[in-house]
Amino acid sequence: MRLHLVELEDLDWFPRAVRDAGLDHLRYTLEATHFYDCVVPLIKEAIDRTGDTAIVDLCSGGGGSIEQIQLQISAAAGKEIPITLTDKFPNVSAFRWLQEHSGGRLGYRSEPVDAADVPKDLVGFRTMFSAVHHFPPDALKSVLRNAMASRAGIGIFDGSQDGLIPVLAIPLNWVIQPIVLALATPFFKPFRWSRLFFTYVIPLIPLYTLWDGSVSVFRLYGPEQLREIVESMESPGYEWKVGKVRGKLGAAVVYIVGTPTSRG
Questions:
Q1: Which among 56, 63, 60 is positioned nearest to 88, based on CA atoms?
Q2: What is the domain range of residue 126?
Q3: Does 176 score more than 90 pLDDT?
């Protein structure tokens, strides 16, 4: 059963410095575990169908696994596939660091971008990682309908409800994560003095990441729930795939991939 509880990250008033630092931590976690490697074939198959040569990433947060994805997609495609990072609350310092670190393969928009109202000049296959659980069903439909209105392909990927294992792991995470943050925080990029202050002096970042990480477990969708959402929409001229795949460490990733049957 999915519960749409409140994550601090979603609140407009939540301090930007704390939010951005927590998203940087998430990026390092996803990169270290290669969490989204398993969805690269799905994206490659989709862009082969659409003919897209660029990707527009929605709700990019701190960047997540996007640099790994860009390298793997480009290798699979046999050509460079640039990615533009966007977000409703753009983490510009992280985006800028990723652009420099990737040698320009990753670009970004510094202005806020609503995933349900993507500017017309942002053209390419749309992706969204680790964000769909932030959207209740009606809001998710708005994201999908906006892609359909632009005849854009879209791939949405997130952790999945996977029995009781994620729920049972919450207490363990409350023990391990503060230790990881205490040891690893000085090495996170881009460097932020505020991250040190809000980790070691006033520990808002550990508390925020623990709360949001725990709440997100209850907000995750299962493939059956996502399939119901897709099937409830009228989507002539679109082909949808909904399912679940597992990564190297056994973690489940749920997905929706939609592609127009024609661009006419």
A1: 60
A2: 8-164+216-260
A3: no
